[in-house]
Amino acid sequence: MTMTARRGTFITLEGIDGCGKSVQAGRLFCWLREHGWDVERTFEPGGWQGGKTLRSLVLNGEIADAETELLIFLADRSGHLASVIWPALEAGRIVLCERYSDSTWAYQVGGRGLDPAKVRGLMELCGFPQPDLTIFLEISPEAAAERLVRRGKADCIETGGIALMSRVAGAYAELAAAHPERIVTVPAGGTEEKVALCIQREMERVLFSGRTCCEVPS
Ligand code: TMP
User: Fold this and answer.
1) What is the biggest distance separating any 2 CA atoms in the chain, rounded to whole angstroms?
2) Which atom of ligand 1 is nearest to the CA of 22?
3) CB atoms inside a 10 Å sphere around CB 102
4) Taking a C-beta distance cutoff of 8 angstroms, is the pair 212, 165 a contact?
5) Entry pTM
6) Residue 212 · residue 9 · CB < 8 Å
């Protein structure tokens, strides 16, 4: 596959269940549009034509095997990249994506305990691009669990409880420490407004640095 310079900016939002990711994605999307940016808002798993089936497969509790679950998340990402993410980046747009490869690392390696070398190898094989910026919304598993309870029904991964979420949170923190050039940690326990302002500051830094990135398949 030949690669050419990609013109858009790829931003991901990450964090444990109940961290406020979707609310912040909505706010950031509006803020970016108000400032004149052309934004594709999307999400994983499931943010593409065909992804709905894969999303319900992994979230409805029918898949108990962690490796099968991993392969579905990767298949979903592959379809999502081909049909949504790459075309938007190629068109010079901002892609704002809720969850991406860091979720796989945090949940399937950190949470489910899959072999890191195996997961890394599979992700390399898939050739997934790195985001330009990842906002990691950090919150304690206890505070996130309270939010989830207030929200009502949880999906099968969310019902893994505090123990699972603590492992996932630990894996995210390790990822953020290992990739400070890409991952920005934003404390997510405060008010929606405060968290949103923090994210906007980071966005200004990235969007006005004149930095453009990597590659798009051609
Ligand atoms: P959400 O999109 O509503 O946050 O829920 C998606 C769930 O799927 C969430 O619990 C995290 C999980 N997930 C993984 O375990 N691995 C992945 O690669 C992705 C994208 C999501």
Assistant:
1) 48
2) 4
3) 23
4) no
5) 0.92
6) yes
Is any atom of ligand 1 closer than 6 Å to the C-beta of 80? no
DSSP code at position 48: S
Please tell me the distance from the alpha carbon of residue 10 to that of residue 89, in angstroms, as a whole number.
Answer: 7
Instruction: Pick the residue whose CA is nearest to atom 17 on ligand 1.
Output: 104
165 vs 156, higher pLDDT:
165
Q: Is the CB of 40 under 6 A from ligand 1?
A: no
Asked whether the bond before 141 is cis by omega within 30 degrees of 0, the reply is no
- Reported as a single tens digit per residue, the pLDDT across 134-144 is 999 999 999 99
Contacts of 42 (CB under 8 A, 6+ apart): 48, 80, 84, 85, 95, 96, 97, 98
pLDDT tens for each residue of 37-71: 999 999 999 999 999 999 999 999 889 899 999 99
75 with 45: CB under 8 angstroms?
Answer: no
Contacts of 102 (CB under 8 A, 6+ apart): 12, 14, 134, 136, 172, 175, 183
Cα–Cα distance measured from residue 215 to residue 218, given in angstroms and rounded to the nearest whole number = 9
| Contact (CB, 8 A) for 104 and 69 | no
Q: What is the mean pLDDT of residues 80-88?
A: 97
Sign, CA torsion 212/123/127/73: negative
